[in-house]
Amino acid sequence: MGGQRVIGPRFRVRDFDLQEGGSLNSNDKSSNSGRDFSDLWNRPGSLIRRLHQIHVAIFLDECSEFKVTPVQFGVLTVLYDGQTLDQVTIASQIGVDRNTAADVVRRLERRGLLVRPKSTGDRRAKLAKITEEGKEFVDAVQPAMIKAQERFVSSLDDEDYDSMMRVMTKLLQNSNEHGRAPLRAFQKTGSAGK
Amino acid sequence: MGGQRVIGPRFRVRDFDLQEGGSLNSNDKSSNSGRDFSDLWNRPGSLIRRLHQIHVAIFLDECSEFKVTPVQFGVLTVLYDGQTLDQVTIASQIGVDRNTAADVVRRLERRGLLVRPKSTGDRRAKLAKITEEGKEFVDAVQPAMIKAQERFVSSLDDEDYDSMMRVMTKLLQNSNEHGRAPLRAFQKTGSAGK
DNA sequence: CGATAATAGGTAGTATACTACGAATATTAT
DNA sequence: ATAATATTCGTAGTATACTACCTATTATCG
């Protein structure tokens, strides 16, 4: 169960010529780090993008019967304990843009998985709170989510897994300021002054 | 240079209650691997998604004067040596969906960075070939792309960098079949039959 | 040769993820 | 208290990334 679609075309390359030409990047090791980004798949960004893409595919496959996306489940995860949060806070917790968070919340509201009471204190704020149905939904999906995570990293032994998680977390902590929507979870505590 | 936008709100958490409630995931180490995905940021998928997001942000920042995205630059990279490829081949080379590739190619054509001659042999196929302007564009953007990659991983020492690249590549090789748009670059050579 | 498969491309719809802009409300500084 | 600033949310637009369905063309098999 779950798609099982045969993926697609094998062996491309047909009537087009394969002459190998330009050099591109010319591998100038003289630059800062000596890391080689000449090949598309030597670029960390390419690997990350593709890995993200594959994770989403696996997640959607494992959770296909629930029709839920990783980000949607992330929102429900942070609301699970009953907190009532506004959109900006939700965005910063799950690490997405404010507008994206608003979209996601809207869709979850449409499905009755959360409600959006107005804030009494701040008349600008539109809060979000998980419903009983939402909590039951999370409980139901949880095993599939875990399966997706496990399947995603199933080819790694413990050493490689720990290594990857450690390095990715490190990267995230140091890059947090760059992206939009910095995470509170990774925020440098002392950087109030900027 | 490049934006310098002050990121945003610090200290959320205001008029909403912070009672800590449910257990969620209950940390059942009895499952297959003993890996703990209870926290959102212990999930490889969350880390990957966020890292991808940050890389895109850095890439767009470094390449802001060129108005180009990572995927667009990926297409230009595979076409740089003068190959004439159809959309399906391009998709499989850069690792995106066929439809996404069609979108990207359309935008690059609109900017004159590539042309789309019809295939003489196969009247279905619409090919893509980089223009002289496209090649010059790649040459101009290349340093910014490299800068983006270096900035993205700047917090890693050589050991961590090598480790991450190795593990990510390993993960990709083993997960290639799962995602849509399997990469030729990572295709298992022996699977010709199937 | 003719029916069937596979392949290439297109369109439409949805979700994530941004930017840019504007309106309403809240906070702060003068 | 008033003005300036910050914050919250909204809309609209673009790009990536899919699914689902469609047509046209090519390849394959009986």
Distance between the termini of chain A: 51 Å
- Kindly estimate the percentage of residues of chain A that lie in beta strands according to DSSP: under 5%
Number of extended strands of chain A: 3
For the largest beta sheet of chain A, what order do the strands appear in spatially? 1-3-2
Shape of chain A: globular
Q: Which structural class do you get from the secondary structure elements of chain A?
A: mainly alpha
Looking at how many chains there are and whether they match, the oligomeric state comes to homodimer
Give the proportion of residues in helices of chain A: 40-55%
Largest sheet composition of chain A: 3 strands, antiparallel
The H-and-E topology of chain A, N to C, reads as HHEHHEEHH
User: Please, how many helices of chain A?
Assistant: 6
Largest interface (CB < 8 Å): A-B, 111 and 112 residues
Gyration radius of chain A, in Å: 21 Å
> Which parts of chain A are unreliable, with pLDDT below 50 for 5 consecutive residues or more?
1-32, 179-194
Task: Summarize this structure as a short list of keywords or feature phrases.
6 helices, disordered C terminus, mainly alpha, three-stranded antiparallel β-sheet, DNA-binding, homodimer, disordered N terminus, 194 residues
